[in-house]
Description:
Chain A is mostly beta strands. Helices cover 0% and strands 50% of the residues of chain A.
Amino acid sequence: EVVLTQSPDFQSVTPKEKVTITCRASQSIGSSLHWYQQKPDQSPKLLIKFASQSFSGVPSRFSGSGSGTDFTLTINSLEAEDAATYYCLQTSSLPLTFGQGTKLEIK
Amino acid sequence: QLQLQESGPGLAKPSETLSLTCSVSGGSLTGSSDYWGWIRRPPGKGLEWVATIDYTGRTYYNPSLGSRLTISVDVSRNQFSLRVTSVTAADTAVYYCARHRGSGSYWDYWGLGTLVTVSS
């Protein structure tokens, strides 16, 4: 099973800051890594697919990078509406696995 | 626009069998390359993949959940379902149904989720 480890678990940030969330895989997964945003009482929303491809309709301040075992989600110029929990998901092999989540709080 | 909606009992007793249904509108369950599945989020925890069924009817299960799972499709009703036998408090979660297109791809359409609480 591929274990995904996100860091940090929690971050408190101010609007307009740049935020970086990392996701490390326990073995190489190529580019089969996707990022989701989940707000309370909502279903997860896809932000980035295959490590670096923006999903349709997602604001341009969200970007992703990485391949193999190390991946990064970057949020440029954070907005108040970005308060949420962020998850990475690997689809390289079964079982599909998620990172433990990174909760972003806006100060 | 594809839409998915979960339905379930809300409350289940320990050792019972849990049945959840996902109703799909705006698209067909027989679409080529489509995979349909369930993901859950226990309270205070992260997301966990549960099970998937593909357009050929092949099924895939999370081995951490043992042999308690059955996922199936009812094409006539445009629904797919999940059965979980011998539920315990650890199965308490919000259950989401979702779709991905193509093997190894991302979940793009999700339902809103249904909360299932296992308690006596």
